[in-house]
Amino acid sequence: MGTSYSIKLADPKESIQLAVIREKITARLEDLDSQLSTYRPTSEISRFNAQPGTDWFSISADSLNILLQGLKISELSGGAFDMTVGPLVALWGFGVEGGSQAVPEQRDIDALLAATGYDFLQIRESPPAIRRTRLGIRLDLSAIAKGYAVDELAAILDEAGVSDYLVEIGGEIRARGGRADATDWRIAVESPVAGTRSVQRVIRLRDQAVATSGDYRNFFEYQGRRYSHTIDPRTGWPISEELGAVSVISETAMEADAWATALLVLGPEQGFELAKREGIAASLIVRTDDGMQELNTSEFEVHLDR
Fold this sequence. Notes:
The chain is α+β, with helices and mostly antiparallel strands. It has nine helices and 14 strands.
């Protein structure tokens, strides 16, 4: 998936076979990458994207689980989260293929907007399959697949009897139990300032997952304006600079991953209102003239390391 991963175990029991766990994790990651990665032309998702027409395309159970969750969040967020936004991301130069990062012509944006929209996807659960109902629709699971992979690795550790661990893929994290001293895992949330690495806030995590989306690592500047890699699928343009980052805590990393992106796209006002309405543990870090301002839902506040 074009990223790295790490796993930390707190004081594992001697009976736990680390070599066996490592083999299972490596195999599972390879399996998921072969299905979900847009970096691999032979992956399941890449083959769907390359298939012309509107015929049904058979998919794995993993892809089905991700797509069902993704479409649910697309509907709840009013299209702020959309797994068909990939071509617009590529148009702005942030895609897998790279390319020049420049402001496109509006006519080019409009052309791809016509081929964007989660409502142009149909899912069949048995046997698992997907089809596009409009030509040009393509899938990019980069805002949800990493979280799903974190959950899958956590399942391997659970099955092996590991009671205290931290799993991370590309910054998406899931924790079980606590540290070797029995205290909660402490996770630093980065301040959304480009070119620096500083801590905005520390949270405590136990038996939950956290994901953060922001605009401060991948962007380009043109004529004094910053253009983020996060594209609003409703307009085809990068999100505004006002909201720097969103962190979401949830039961699963997949859910946290997708919601962090959705709230970031919605912006500080709409995103915060949706988070409160849906009972999401979310922290929105907003840029103001007086510095960074945090908007935390009550569900997120209980995790803050005071």
